[in-house]
Amino acid sequence: MLKNMWDCGSIRPDRSDRTLKFEVRKLEDLMTRVLPHFRTYPLISSKQADVVRFDQVCCWMSAGRHLERSGFVRIVRLAMEMNPSGKRKYSESDILKSF
User: Fold this and answer.
1) What is the pLDDT of residues 43-72, one digit of tens each?
2) What is the CATH number assigned to the segment(s) 25-97?
């Protein structure tokens, strides 16, 4: 339903938990289709704070801030604040070393 509503994204299997995931990978689709929805209809849960952070990250990336060291660092730090109970493949320091 989300794929049809936003007319973007894809559905992929996640073998780790045997579920299907909906994902949008194009920044333009996130900025023009997905994030406006959550600005109009915010979540009524603690996850809304992550949506606001993600919105900020997308805005910075859209402005090219991720290409500057200071912008990249800010984005990584903000991303690390999202979903704090989730598992991470890479640590903040490993990501920052890659720049």
Assistant:
1) 999 999 999 999 999 999 999 999 999 999
2) 3.10.28.10
